[in-house]
Amino acid sequence: MHISVQKKIRIGFFIAFTIIVGATVLSYLIAKNLMHNANQLNHTIEVSKKLEVITKQLKDAEAAIRGYNLTKQAAFLHPSMEERSAKIEKEYRNLRKIINDPAQQKNLDTLKNLLDIKYKQLTAGEQTNTAVGGRISVEEGEVSMDLIDKKVQDMTDIEEAQLTERSRLFQFFSTLWIPVVFIISIFAILIGVYSYIILNREFRLQLHVETRLKNYQRELQENITLLNKSNLDLEQFAYVASHDLQEPLRKISTFSDRLQVKYKPELPADASQLIDRMVVAVHRMRVLINDLLSFSRAGRITPESVKPVDMNQLLQNVIGDLELALQDRKGIVYHDQLPEIEGSDTAFHQLFLNLLSNSVKFADPERPLVIRIKKELLSGRETGTIKEDKREETFCRITIEDNGIGFDQANAERIFLIFQRLHGVSEYKGTGIGLAICKKIVDAHHGTITAYGYPEKGAAFVIVLPIKQ
What we know:
CATH architecture of the largest domain: Up-down Bundle
Order of helices and strands: HHHHHHEHHEEHEHEHEE
Shape: rod-shaped
CATH topology of the largest domain: Four Helix Bundle (Hemerythrin (Met), subunit A)
Strand order of the largest sheet: 2-4-5-7-6
Number of helices: 11
Radius of gyration: 57 Å
CATH class of the largest domain: Mainly Alpha
Number of domains: 3
Strand content: 5-15%
Largest sheet: 5 strands, mixed
Helix content: 55-70%
Number of strands: 7
């Protein structure tokens, strides 16, 4: 399955974005764990230090009592046991503030009880002067100190166990972080290289397309120049046809008329027939030239000539122009109410005049001619033949049906070509330009025209025109 370049780039950026988001989340979690472990390490170290400070101060106080009991020197009692106890109590309260573990809090409660006992012993030891009393105080102090040491050791062991676990986690996350960063970097590099290759290829393709487009534009401009030259040549031809060719035809017609008037009695019968045939040929030539002029001028729509056209009034004018021809064929025209359509009224008049004249010309002599003109408003999308940028605009579909002799559907496209006839000149008059003019007018108004033939039954011409130009 082929994947477009745009889709590849979107997939690449989606993967890169996913990796970046994943790396960001993972980095946040790892950093959070590292910070938490670091805080826990600091907490364990701080607890151990405070326990050590409490133990040291207790031992210093006990040593001071022993020194006093042995030497009776008052210097050992400075600072006093109350001051020492207050200092130890302050360290205990600070320790209490930083411990949240329930097990350690229970150990703190036990330690508090032991410290209270120790405070009393220290105070009592400070006031004891007898040897027996001193010995009892020292023995009690040693027992109490052993209990405190044991409790402090228990708390230290718990903190060290937690410290070991946190150190292991800290080491795990620290070790994990390096390969994660490496893998993410590899992915980022690969995606960067991939994106660079794709974008570079797309850029080169864009340059190639732009180069080709410039070539096409240059060729188009050359073709437009050639087309303008061809149009200029056609204009010159039209001028020649309307002036230079008409003049010799008039002379031939004049001389043939004079021959017939002045010398007809003296001419043999076959010579008179030749002159008659010459007159007919001159007439046909004049009609052909006039039709060519009409074809060259058809479809010239300028912005100034475009205006809303009352199609009902225009149709009445066309029917009026064909009144005599319709009477000869016993013809009648039925038509719907047509909307206003923007365009050239002259071109529309010629369009409907040619189509209705075509129906009159090819009427069936065995039955009265009936022409029906129907209309339908629809969007460009509903027509099925309009370009993408016109699909939302409003169009009018006009159908002109007759019950004439019809034609073979195989010739439906051929009849719109110039000089194309389906019947001989002796059967039906005309030069084969009328329907070509109709197509040219419809194309100039950004519409379409289609023919449908039914031999011996009739024909239908479907015209689709935009309401607004």
